[in-house]
Predict the structure.
Amino acid sequence: MVKNFSFVKRLLWYLRNPNHWNHFFFAIKRRFRWLIVGREKFDKSIEAEKWCKEMKIADDEIIRNTTNSDSVALPSDLVNYIEEKKKDLNSADVVLGDEGNLHLMYNLIVLSKANRIIETGVAFGWSSLVILSAIKNSNGRLVSTDKPVPDKETNRYIGIAVPNDLRENWVLYKEADISGLEKAFKLHPSYDLCHYDSDKSYEGRMRTYPKLWKSLKPGGIFISDDIGDNMAFKEFAEDIGKKPYVSHSITSAGDRYVGILVKDSI
Ligand SMILES: C[S@@+](CC[C@H](N)C(=O)[O-])C[C@H]1O[C@@H](n2cnc3c(N)ncnc32)[C@H](O)[C@@H]1O
């Protein structure tokens, strides 16, 4: 059983790791802002969820509108592998973040022939696994970032769902977006598709969405998970003047809204 890491231990870990200070200062500044102004002022989660409810359309329609193709099912060997691996990890008793909309993600990658992909937020690695499976035959590349967990025992679970035979085409930076993405953009300056599933705060999204959008090639696809948490996705879509697509599904944690934007082709 992985125990909670205490605040003091976490603080000491950050003191010993100066390359993570940027993220640490960002998080502290944000906490103070929430304390003074109130987080709801930034998030407006009730408004965000209402907007998502109004905008949602079926995944099949999103897939058709964005790729001009009909959806395909996830390969049965992948579905079976996920089921088995989830059983294993349940007994490990470690809690990391929930998975994204794997079916939607798989379809958008395969049908748009996306080959170079960037994602933020890995946790056990269900999304990484699906992305790597989708690009396996085209010898694509995935670059992922996930904030390091100061506790070594938990840290080793990041990306654990990805089997060795898929790791060859994967670069995982166990760093917060603030520094991990810099490395990812140095490695490959442009991508066909991005999946945002890391820092769910309004501020975190507003800081990272523009960087990911900029890195997308013409015709590239932008996917963001949990957009019902706050107004960041809606505002970002308005800022760049793009039509937002909103997917809805129900998970064990409740309603899940995923947002999709497509960059103009040349
Ligand atoms: C919802 S989980 C990701 C789930 C994963 N995409 C999947 O579908 O299986 C969110 C992850 O984002 C990471 N995270 C949170 N804030 C972050 C940040 N600022 N930079 C990088 N990763 C972050 C957390 O450590 C957590 O593992």
User: Anything to note?
Assistant: The mean pLDDT is 93.
